């Protein structure tokens, strides 16, 4: 397949949390299919990881360009900076695909959840997608895609792993997809979908406390699945790439479950 035949050639994607784990998998798959990618990350100490992600996109030889942008998504004044830098560095005028992947999770009970933890969870998982999208709307053309990464936690309790604040934030994400699909579909021709992700062992999961990680793995092993394994970032990236593609144009307002058949919903 020539570069011009790649399904996302000429498109530009912005992926938050785009340099590690699921986000990196998504960034690479979109680039593999020809899309330019702006990868947003929060922690300045991960600048080297960001450089490696940009190099990995270049190594695909798909013709896609990539840029990494460091910005704290909890600070709304960063949003225009993110957009301006993405457009300038990639040499484009539009952002065709937006993937809200960045997330914050504290696997703790309600009893010990502080206001600061709650506020950080909501700021990263709900407020940032809402107001970053608000800023992005003038740059998303008709036929654009907004994809929100949700979690099975929005729909069920993970035994042994309390994460109520995270769960309700992801329920809000799915509500955004339903409402935006109508609001932006009617006025702008943009499709909006959420992807509810099951157990995927990423760097974030592996950074949990030993107790939380053990509970996570026990829960994963306990539940019968059609696909008896944990998910991978590539499993999620393939679905995101489908939603980003022209072939998904009739799919909007949906929350797609990707959990290996553990909870068929």
From TrEMBL:
SUPFAM superfamilies: NAD(P)-binding Rossmann-fold domains. GO terms for molecular function: oxidoreductase activity. It holds the Pfam family adh_short_C2. Residues 11-198 form the Ketoreductase domain. Keywords: NADP, Oxidoreductase. It comes from the Eukaryota. Belongs to the short-chain dehydrogenases/reductases (SDR) family. This is Enoyl-(Acyl carrier protein) reductase domain-containing protein. It comes from Trichoderma breve. The lineage of its organism: Eukaryota, Fungi, Dikarya, Ascomycota, Pezizomycotina.
């Amino acid at each position: 397949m020539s570069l011009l035949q790649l399904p996302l050639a000429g498109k530009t994607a912005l992926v938050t949390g785009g340099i590690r784990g699921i986000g990196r998998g998504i960034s690479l798959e979109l680039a593999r299919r020809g899309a330019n990618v702006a990868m947003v990350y929060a922690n300045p100490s991960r600048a080297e990881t960001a450089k490696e992600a940009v190099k990995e996109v270049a190594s695909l030889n798909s013709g896609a360009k990539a840029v990494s942008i460091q910005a704290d998504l909890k600070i709304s004044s960063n949003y225009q900076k993110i957009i301006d830098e993405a457009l300038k560095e990639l040499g484009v005028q539009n952002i065709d695909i937006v993937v809200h992947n960045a997330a914050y999770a504290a696997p703790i009970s309600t009893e010990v959840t502080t206001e600061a933890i709650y506020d950080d969870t909501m700021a990263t998982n709900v407020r940032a997608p809402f107001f970053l999208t608000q800023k992005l709307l003038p740059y998303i053309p008709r036929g654009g895609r907004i994809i929100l990464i949700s979690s099975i936690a929005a729909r069920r309790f993970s035994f042994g792993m309390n994460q109520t604040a995270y769960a309700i934030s992801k329920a809000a994400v799915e509500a955004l997809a339903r409402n935006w699909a109508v609001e932006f579909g009617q006025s702008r021709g943009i499709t909006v979908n959420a992807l509810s992700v099951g157990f995927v062992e990423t760097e974030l999961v592996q950074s949990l406390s030993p107790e939380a990680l053990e509970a996570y793995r026990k829960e994963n092993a306990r539940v019968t699945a059609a696909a008896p394994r944990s998910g991978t970032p590539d499993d999620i990236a393939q679905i995101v790439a489908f939603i980003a593609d022209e072939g998904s144009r009739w799919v909007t307002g949906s929350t797609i479950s990707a959990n290996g058949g553990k909870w068929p919903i």
